[in-house]
Amino acid sequence: MVADGSGKQRARPEWLQQYDLVGKIGEGTYGLVYLAKSKEPAHSRGTKIAIKKFKQSKEGDGVSPTAIREIMLLRECIHENIVKLVNVHINHGDMSLYLAFDYAEHDLYEIIRHHREKINCSINAYTVKSLLWQILNGLNYLHSNWIIHRDLKPSNILVMGEGDEQGLVKIGDFGLARIFQAPLRSLSENGVVVTIWYRAPELLLGSRHYTSAVDMWAVGCIFAELLTLKPLFQGIEDKSSPNPFQLDQLDKIFKVLGNPTADKWPTLLTLPHWASNRQNIQTRKYDNPGLYSIVQLPPKSPGFDLLSKMLEYDPIKRITASQALEHDYFRNDPIPGRNSLVPPNAADKVVPYPQRPVDYSTDFDGTTAPPPPQMPNPSSMSGGSNQLHQSMNVNMQQQQHKVQNSNNMVVNPPVGMHGLNSSAGIYTQRGNPAVLLQQQQQQGLRRKEQSNVSYPGHYQPPNKSRRI
Ligand SMILES: Nc1ncnc2c1ncn2[C@@H]1O[C@H](COP(=O)(O)OP(=O)(O)OP(=O)(O)O)[C@@H](O)[C@H]1O
């Protein structure tokens, strides 16, 4: 118990007490990601958790009540192939937001990189198929709940490490792309880069309507990348204005799939950039699509058929997640399995992927932790990082102190919607998740129309420095 400004005693925020902060594991468009461990036996001691801290905007306007309400809705999404949002914490002092997720030891960015740069061999067919099936399964769940991910890419496809859930795919970051529609410029300046490589052609051509088909395009790109270990369409980003027309990205797509035509894609002619940049777009003609030679699949194979249907130009004709799950590709050997990392056939080698690197020296403020001011407590020691770990705990305590003085709101794991903070005007509702998610979708569309934001123009070049 601690005293607040009024002299009253109040409980420490529960969520801070239950974890030991271990260190920083990554940095994304919206903020930093930390690894923490559960301290409490009730949550099975030592359970790893990923805490995402969202950075403040330069204007310091914090997290809007609408964003918070929508995040609360994301906690309703419970599915084996969706990363679980276990805790939401808003620090009202500086209006920063912390989201705690189940921790995944791997992601497809690292898995693909490991095969390409470390072991120099392809990912086995069973693993590719199992990963793809589970991505589609998670996506089908999201789409049937009216959630469009909008930012699918290998680093957002998490894969569980050793344990009961080993090899399970968890889609991360779902729903956040819309909530935080305009990422902060300063983050890009920090060297963190987001990518246009997985962006659907209708968006590149200026469509303002997101449909679930944009996610299927991204899955097609990821499928190809799992097969070849290289991004399929590596366009060079134009950064000349806040939201420029990405000609090179489209050009890379056309080169592989051929130029789109109004015959095959009737609404093409209505897309803003198709009309306004027609000359630029159509100077180069690509008549010999070469997708099958890139992915090295026979044109008549089920795998190639599925991939082509994901990379269909016309979003209306593009295969849906539920259709894809029924595709013949998944009915043929090797049959996909729950543990994507351990093929049932003993002849297939199990690849030991490395654990995520952890930067033990960065605290929750994103600054380097000072040397520990006191002797390490042996009970919190682990491996060679004892001192740093201890200093992280100290920082955690400092953070706690800050938080306790800042009228924080903590929302603990859910059964149904809950959490009311009238002083902040933040509320969530009890009710049917499907209905709520539909409302969420409608609100999002309305907001998009009002703000007239079609897609954030914050992309940086492909040499993304995404690690710690
Ligand atoms: N639940 C999690 N468990 C383990 N690692 C995670 C988890 N969520 C995210 N990460 C990792 O943290 C890093 C940063 O993630 P984050 O989602 O913030 O950025 P990103 O996906 O690299 O880029 P962007 O923010 O542009 O989507 C990535 O390596 C990601 O795989």
Automatic annotation (TrEMBL):
Residues 377-387 have a biased composition (Low complexity). Coiled coil: none annotated. Residues 19-330 form the Protein kinase domain. GO terms for cellular component: mediator complex; nucleus. It catalyses: L-seryl-[protein] + ATP = O-phospho-L-seryl-[protein] + ADP + H(+); L-threonyl-[protein] + ATP = O-phospho-L-threonyl-[protein] + ADP + H(+); [DNA-directed RNA polymerase] + ATP = phospho-[DNA-directed RNA polymerase] + ADP + H(+). Transmembrane segments: none annotated. Gene3D superfamilies: Phosphorylase Kinase, domain 1 (3.30.200.20), Transferase(Phosphotransferase) domain 1 (1.10.510.10). ATP binds at K53. GO terms for molecular function: ATP binding; cyclin-dependent protein serine/threonine kinase activity; protein serine/threonine kinase activity; RNA polymerase II CTD heptapeptide repeat kinase activity. It comes from the Eukaryota. PROSITE patterns: PROTEIN_KINASE_ATP, PROTEIN_KINASE_DOM, PROTEIN_KINASE_ST. It holds the Pfam family Pkinase. Keywords: ATP-binding, Kinase, Nucleotide-binding, Phosphoprotein, Serine/threonine-protein kinase, Transferase. CDD domains: STKc_CDK8_like. Belongs to the protein kinase superfamily. CMGC Ser/Thr protein kinase family. CDC2/CDKX subfamily. This is Protein kinase domain-containing protein. It comes from Physcomitrium patens.
